[in-house]
Design brief:
The complex is a heterotrimer.
Chain A: H1 13-33, E1 36-38, E2 43-45, H2 49-56, H3 58-90, H4 96-108, H5 111-121, H6 128-135, H7 150-175, H8 179-187, H9 192-203, H10 205-221, H11 224-229, H12 241-250, H13 254-285
Antiparallel strand pairs in A: 1-2
Chain B: H1 2-18, E1 32-39, H2 42-58, E2 62-69, H3 72-84, E3 91-94, H4 98-101, H5 105-108, H6 123-128, E4 130-131, E5 134-135, E6 137-140, E7 144-151, H7 152-158, H8 166-178, E8 182-184, H9 196-199, H10 202-208, H11 212-217, H12 227-241, H13 254-263, E9 266-272, H14 276-282, E10 290-293, E11 305-308, E12 311-314, H15 322-334, H16 337-346, H17 366-369, H18 371-376, E13 381-383, H19 385-388, H20 396-404, H21 410-428
Parallel strand pairs in B: 1-2, 1-3, 8-9, 11-13
Antiparallel strand pairs in B: 3-12, 4-5, 6-12, 7-9, 7-10, 7-11
Helix pairs in contact in B: 2-16, 10-12, 12-21, 20-21
Chain C: H1 2-29, H2 33-36, H3 49-95, H4 99-113, H5 118-128, H6 134-157, H7 162-170, H8 175-186, H9 188-204, H10 207-212, H11 221-231, H12 236-271
Helix pairs in contact in C: 1-12, 3-6, 3-9, 3-11, 3-12, 4-6, 6-9, 7-8, 9-12, 11-12
The chains are: A mainly alpha, B alpha/beta, C mainly alpha.
């Protein structure tokens, strides 16, 4: 290392300063805060009490399963629908550009705005969705107010909003597959479905990994859409961990809430880290 | 390249630095501007703006700028954070009672005990904005009641009488249901409205168990174990199980509930009387049809009204010098008949004013007038529990939604609420928890 | 023929699924208060776009205008800083494996996974005197957005042949000239993607401004929505007009970069 590297370490520095001060320091202090009971005005050390209370929080067990359901449903649907849409939008169909725009556009709109809009559209009686279903003689569920539907309804809106990004990632993945593969397959007489199964599906695996990881992280941490649409309700039936944490925060239980933050952090890490290892390993094997 | 980039970054930061609030105006010579933070509901903003205008008309050298904050717990956090950072507006409006106590008043607020207006305040109210013998606030707008608003026209048509006991109430409900009118209106999209069966029942609880508030604070009695307190939860479950709720209770909002009540589609709406303002604004033609009665309990003789004290207006310690004097002047104005007149100008009162010398205007809606007999009768009213005990669990509204929707049985709900309360008590560091 | 039919079907289905909600926003924004409150999907009986527009803009003392200025400054500044800093990190991270690489990778992943702790962040900002200031909020947004950008850029730096670096170094370029003169321009396509995605995130952010830059004078556009939802919870025509107005900037951005977002993401990959 006599000559100076063309890739100097100080390139890390500006980002490290901002990130360290405003993300790492608060995160580390939050571990300490999670062991205290504190108001904005003062704090006392209470050991692991907050974690004990948090795990006794009746809504938490519900919140825990809901978080997993939400994460799996949204990321699963985004993978499947994103892949299908991407295949459709990379094929020779009419109005391809227009369709790409239409599918991607919801990604850009404010989550709160979308939440408010869909709350109105999903109204059990006056809402557009159930009114349209009624035209076909179907009596739609009370999307957001029926305890057994509420979480699923929010998850569907999440997919509606986020599938554009998944599609985009898949389009990028599919377009980067060399066209010769498809041609060779076509010469071999493979049909559209066979080409999809033996070329697109395996070669788009990096895209699948990205979509799964990103949407799983987003899904497990998801909060603002749930908050805008149901506030975890009715009652506690659509609460996820993030909304439980937020409610503790709102109630002024800062220590308890940061303890919840730590729990969520552990949960997301425990799921996402091994998963990303597995997904990336397969990528290398290909 | 690099220089250009640095310059671009610096100019962006410079631009950023000067932008927020650059449309705001600065003080002119000899003039003073007080900032006044209130929550962003129309019920608070309108009176606040009326106060600001009235005060400046009287004191041309002082202008009052009304700022708004979100309602609910988000607003609580903003208030606490701004107080803790010494960054509060010159004057601010906030709840009295337990939420006020949570502000650490001794540490953050400037007392007004020695001010002339202190003697003009209602004693009940003074208790809710005092800590360690010091008085900190004046009442923002009138007091309010938690009670059942009912449609008097419907009552007249069906020949019903105002119930004094729960049994009478349920028999009225049965007749209303037979007449195809929703007996009890619930609106769970505004979750706070679900709590009234529990919170507004407190007069009945304390009539049956006078020591409840003190024992409850000391962890000696609980909602799940006190027969009187549990009633609120069981009543909520009863009206749901009997099918007495409006069909859209899960998706309705408060405004929908008011519309149903005003039109006579629904007969009873347990709610806070602060909503009478919007009722009067949106249903001016039928406001005369709406009356009020206290939540019925077991004993007709002890039935009475649960009252919520007004919110307070406070001065933070960070307001100093000439601004503090001006702020005191503003508080004196609020706690005077002129202040009450400004409140009345912004909308009908939600109950009697808590300042001596203030009277209800002649055109006060019937529902509010119906409160007066309860308040005049000895032992006819009590302050709500949240003014007598510092503990109020934050999740009550979710729990009452579950009980009122048939998701969770009443006894379960009460037990769950007791757990919720425990967190609050521990957070406050109360003895015995 | 079959593909054309399929295309037509796709157009119709996507139209219904993705555009009807927007049509609903637009239509409701143009109705009278009474008509809007019925929540019907119908053509407004009276077109009230102009009146509703003025009412929303004038509400709370022209708060929306101030909010637009604040949001624009916030978005432009934080995204510019974020993109440059992240590209620098991604460049060194990809090119130079060292004892730092593991740590940096860990921090990047941590930034994606860990939910930010709000109150400790406020505490730090206060210590720095940046709480309730626009630069403070800008830096917070930069800190929260860095991870995503680094991740996005790192993959694309990998697609830039090292031969280009070597050529530039032979020409005597130092690290700064190598990065800003050679690499950064080559990242253009992915930068467009990052800029669009992050601009939208920052512009649509609602929680961070609420906590780190409170106060009406400091409101960002999402907070105006918040105020509306509280203040006019029944005035659907104004609420939807407000949603419509704050959707316009992302719409313009999208119209501009639409082609480049997809092309950008893909072209980089192809070159690799």
């Amino acid at each position: 290392m006599v000559t100076r590297s063309p890739y100097p370490h100080w390139f890390y520095l500006p980002a490290a300063v901002v990130y360290g001060v405003l993300f790492v320091v608060p995160t580390v202090t939050s571990f300490w805060f999670s062991l205290t009971r504190w108001t904005v005005f003062d704090s006392t050390f209470v050991g692991l009490d907050n974690f004990v209370t948090f795990f006794r929080e009746p809504a938490l067990v519900k919140g825990l399963t809901n978080t997993l359901i939400y994460g799996v449903v949204t990321s699963g649907l985004k993978v499947v629908l994103g892949m299908l849409l991407a295949v459709l939008l990379t094929s020779q169909i009419a109005a391809r550009g227009w369709l790409r725009s239409v599918v991607f556009f919801p990604v850009l709109v404010s989550t709160i705005g979308i939440g408010l809009t869909f709350t109105v559209l999903m109204d059990p009686v006056d809402g557009l969705i159930n009114q349209s279903l009624a035209v076909w003689g179907i009596s739609g569920p009370a999307w957001l107010t029926d305890p057994s539907w509420a979480l699923l309804s929010v998850a569907l809106v999440d997919v509606w909003k986020g599938v554009g990004l998944a599609t985009l990632i898949y389009i990028a993945g599919i377009v980067s597959i060399p066209a010769e593969y498809f041609e060779a397959a076509r010469v071999d007489g493979a049909g559209a479905f066979a080409r999809f199964r033996s070329i697109t599906l395996p070669l788009a695996r990096p895209a699948t990994a990205t979509v799964i990881i990103l949407s799983l992280i987003g899904g497990l941490r998801s909060f603002d859409l749930i908050w805008a649409m149901t506030r975890g309700g009715p009652g506690f039936t659509s609460d996820v961990i993030a909304s439980v944490i937020y409610k503790q925060y709102q109630a002024g239980f800062y220590g308890l809430s940061t303890a919840g933050n730590v729990v969520l952090f552990v949960l997301v890490t425990a799921i996402v880290l091994p998963l990303s290892r597995i997904l990336n390993r397969r990528e290398v094997e290909l | 390249m690099r220089n250009r980039l640095i310059i671009a970054t610096i100019s962006l930061l410079a631009l950023a630095g000067c932008s927020p609030g650059s449309l705001g105006s600065s003080d002119e010579d000899g003039k003073l501007t007080l900032t006044f933070l209130v929550d962003n509901s129309a019920e608070s903003l309108k009176p606040a703006e009326a106060l600001a205008a009235g005060f400046t008309a009287k004191n041309p050298d002082i202008t009052v700028d009304v700022e708004s904050r979100p309602q609910g717990s988000e607003g609580d956090n903003i208030i606490k954070t701004r107080l803790a950072t010494g960054d509060m507006t010159d004057v601010f409006q906030y709840n009295s009672g337990s939420l006020f106590q949570a502000l650490a008043p001794g540490q953050n607020l400037a007392p007004v005990t020695d001010q002339a207006f202190a003697g003009d305040l209602d004693e009940n109210f003074k208790a809710t904005v005092s800590a360690d013998g010091q008085l900190y606030g004046v009442p923002f707008n009138a007091s309010m009641g938690g009670a059942i608003l009912y449609n008097r026209k419907v009552y007249a048509q069906l020949g019903l009488t105002v119930p004094k006991t729960w049994a009478e109430f349920m028999s009225n409900n049965a007749q209303l249901k037979a007449a195809n009118i929703a007996p009890v209106i619930q609106t769970y999209q505004d979750t706070w409205t679900s709590q009234l069966f529990v919170l507004a029942d407190f007069h009945n609880v304390s009539a049956a168990e006078p020591a409840f508030a003190a024992d409850y604070t000391a962890n000696k009695t609980k909602y799940a174990t006190s027969p009187a307190a549990l009633k609120g939860f069981t009543h909520l479950q009863e009206v749901h199980d009997a099918g007495y709720l409006n069909s859209d209770f899960a998706s309705a909002k408060m405004v929908d509930g008011l519309a149903q009540l005003a039109s006579g589609k629904g007969a009873h709406y347990p709610i806070l009387t602060s909503v009478v303002t919007s009722l009067a604004a949106d249903h001016a033609d039928t406001i005369g049809d709406i009356g009020l009665f206290a939540l019925p309990g077991d004993d007709a003789a002890k039935n009475g009204l649960t009252v919520w004290a007004s919110a307070g207006v406070y001065i933070p310690k960070s307001t100093e010098g000439a601004k503090r004097d001006a702020a005191r002047q503003f508080l004196a104005y609020i706690a005077s008949p002129e202040g009450c007149a400004a409140f009345a100008q912004a909308g009908p009162p939600s109950g009697p004013y808590m300042v001596k010398g203030c009277t209800l205007p002649a055109d006060t809606p019937q529902a509010i007038k119906d409160m007066q007999p309860y308040i005049d009768a000895p032992g006819g009213s009590s302050l709500a529990l949240e003014f007598l005990s510092p503990i109020k669990g934050p999740a009550l509204e979710q729990i009452t939604v579950e009980v009122g929707s048939g998701i969770r049985p009443a006894a379960d709900g009460a037990a769950l609420y007791d757990q919720d309360v425990k967190k609050q008590a521990q957070q406050l560091g109360l003895p015995g928890w | 023929m079959r593909s054309r039919l399929l295309g037509l079907l796709a157009v119709v289905v996507s139209g219904v699924v993705f555009l009807v909600p927007f049509a609903f926003i637009v239509l409701t924004a143009g109705k009278t208060r009474a008509e809007a409150s019925r929540l019907e999907f119908s053509w407004p009986a009276q077109l009230r776009f102009a009146e509703n527009f003025l009412e929303v803009v004038r509400a709370r003392d022209y708060m929306l205008i101030i909010a637009y200025i604040n949001s624009t400054v916030l978005t432009v500044a934080s995204v510019s800083i974020m993109v440059v800093l992240a590209a620098m990190v991604a460049f060194v991270l990809q090119r130079r494996p060292s004892r730092w690489t593991g740590t940096v990778n860990f921090l990047v992943l941590a930034g994606l996974i860990i939910p930010p702790a709000v109150v400790p962040t406020i505490w730090v900002l206060q210590r720095l005197g940046l709480f309730r200031t626009m630069p403070g909020l800008i830096l917070v947004e930069v800190a929260f957005g860095l991870s995503f950008c680094v991740l996005l850029f790192r993959a694309f730096v990998a697609t830039i042949p090292r031969a280009l670096d070597e050529a530039a170094i032979l020409d005597g370029a130092g690290p700064l000239r190598l990065f800003f003169g050679v690499i950064f321009p080559l990242l253009r396509s992915v930068i467009v993607t990052a800029v669009v995605v992050q601009s939208v995130t920052v512009f649509n952010d609602f929680v961070n401004p609420l906590y780190f830059l409170p106060g009406d004078r400091n409101a960002t556009v999402q907070l105006t929505l918040y105020n509306f939802a509280g203040q006019y919870s029944t005035d659907y025509h104004l609420l939807f007009m407000n949603i419509l107005l704050i959707t316009i900037p992302p719409l313009i951005m999208f119209a501009f970069f639409n082609r480049q977002i997809v092309a950008g993401m893909t072209s980089g990959a192809i070159k690799g």
